[in-house]
């Protein structure tokens, strides 16, 4: 999320923490007995949220200006640094809002899709296939 607004050592730290977020979230979902065979939730959900929050912590003014150009006229970029780079929290608030909006959008769109699939009778496989095992039926 923030490759254009963080420096090299910050990116290294963000990557290390991202690895820990992945491992911890995968273990948490396994402990909660959530079946996520492809590990999509840890990679795209939890690590995606970490990537957004990381900008709020690690964005720096020099890289923001290099990525988005000087904004001397109205000064809107002046207070967008991350918390670790003398930011006032505005960037973190923006990133938090992004997480909330993305989560709400994902929840609503997934819910609408699952509702439609259930209404059409296509959300689950038939019970007899569940009992036999889908691998035996498909292969």
Can you walk me through this structure?
The structure is a single chain. By secondary structure, the protein is an all-alpha fold. Helices cover 66% and strands 0% of the residues.
**What Rg do the Cα atoms give?**
21 Å
Low-confidence stretches: none
Beta-strand residue fraction: under 5%
Number of continuous helical runs: 6
Shape: elongated
Structural class: mainly alpha
Oligomer: single chain
Largest sheet: none
The number of E-state strands comes to 0
Distance between the termini: 41 Å
> Topology as H/E string?
HHHHHH
Report the mean per-residue pLDDT as an integer.
90
Helix content bin: 55-70%
Annotation keywords:
139 residues, mainly alpha, 6 helices
Topology of this structure?
Layout: H1 8-31, H2 40-58, H3 61-68, H4 90-119, H5 127-132, H6 134-138
Helix pairs in contact: 1-2, 2-4
Brief summary of the model shown:
66% of the residues lie in helices and 0% in strands. By secondary structure, it is mostly helical. The chain starts with 7 loop residues before the first helix and ends with a helix.
């Amino acid at each position: 999320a923030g490759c254009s607004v963080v420096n090299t050592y910050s990116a290294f730290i963000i990557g290390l923490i991202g690895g820990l977020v992945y491992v911890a979230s995968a273990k948490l979902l396994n402990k909660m007995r959530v079946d996520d065979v492809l590990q999509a939730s840890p990679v795209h959900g939890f690590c995606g949220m970490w990537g957004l929050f990381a900008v709020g912590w690690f964005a720096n003014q020099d890289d923001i200006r290099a990525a988005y150009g000087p904004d001397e006229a109205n000064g809107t970029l002046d207070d967008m640094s991350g918390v670790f780079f003398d930011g006032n929290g505005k960037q973190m608030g923006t990133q938090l809002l992004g997480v909330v909006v993305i989560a709400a959008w994902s929840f609503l769109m997934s819910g609408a899709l699952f509702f439609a699939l259930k209404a059409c009778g296509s959300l689950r496989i038939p019970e007899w296939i569940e009992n036999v095992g889908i691998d035996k039926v498909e292969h």
